[in-house]
Amino acid sequence: MITRTAILSSLLFASGAFAHCQLAWPFPLHSPLNPATPEAIKDYSNTSPLITDGTYPCKGFINNPSSDMGSVATFSAGSSMNYTIAGTATHGGGSCQISMSYDQGSTWNVIYSQVGGCLVDGMTTTITIPSEAPNGDALFAWGWFNRQGNREMYHNCASVTITNGGSGLNSNDYPTPFVANANVNECKTIEGIDVVFPNPGKNVNYGGSYASTKPTTPAGFTGSNCVGPGATESSPSSASASASTTSSSQGVAVSASIGVQIGNGQSTSASAVAAQPSTTEYSLSLDPTTTSLTGINNNNAAQPSTSATTSTCKRRKRRSNSDSVERRHQRLIRRPRANQATGRVAASKAEHVNRQKKRGTGRVAAMKATHNV
Fold this sequence. Notes:
Elements: H1 9-13, E1 21-25, E2 73-76, E3 80-87, E4 94-101, E5 109-115, E6 124-128, E7 136-146, E8 154-163, E9 188-189, E10 204-206, E11 221-222, E12 253-255, E13 259-263, E14 281-285, E15 292-294, E16 312-313, E17 325-332, E18 349-357, E19 364-369, E20 371-372
Parallel strand pairs: 2-8, 5-10
Antiparallel strand pairs: 1-3, 3-6, 4-5, 4-7, 7-8, 9-11, 12-13, 13-14, 14-15, 16-20, 17-18, 18-19
């Protein structure tokens, strides 16, 4: 295990499984980072957005299969926990929400909203599990709306257990989450603007360009009733306008085996905000045969110690003439050959492909644009 301050970012960038970003802790459903996930159902494109790869909620992984629904962590209601995001293409940040479901994803309650600065302000965030959260098994979901690039929604869900719980999460303080770019409603986010959620809930942190202004007027999207299937958008509570929590600003440190050192420590990034010292360390590897995230106390969530340089996708300028340009994400996944003895699997790589019709010929030429980090 290397020191927590070492950053071999070039190795991380070469890993297709980190092309975008994903919930790394708690382990999400079908996570390739979870050593308990059967190889047959590991999603090496867990970093891909909805529509491109998966449906809302949870990429369609709820009870698919039911054997993957076992709890990966236990949290006490009213206590602090950390969730960790892994990846490099932060797409300029954006806004994100943490929500919980106690009925297998039929209904959700937002327990934390990051309005602006999501990911670029830190890859590990400290939040509080509401004291009202009831006991039992629940889904812990991370939803992200990127600021730059294609209009996307990312949604990863982890099975967790809540103890010492309360009476329940009411819809005024803990509303249904914001949903857009997922083909379940007419809502789309607007590129270049961090989403200001119509109802962020009781616990809100403002980051990025919103850190000082703390806007409450909804912005950054088009459409109405921007919620999931069967849900109805509720009016924001008076508490949500003024509530605020604090997120940490650690990043991701990478090992020579294309892994991630996750643990508390003093950040060396100029943009980092005071990290809490600790002796807990985690080692994260993406090799399908040795994938692991190990540490002294997994229930307290992994915390990256060093902030890696964030990145965005370079996008080609749109042509102003009549030529049309299509953009779509394309996943390339290599699977083991039938005669391959080792059974090793190369992680997926996400790449943007632009297709442009040549004038007059009707032929199509493909141009690749990769992430530049």
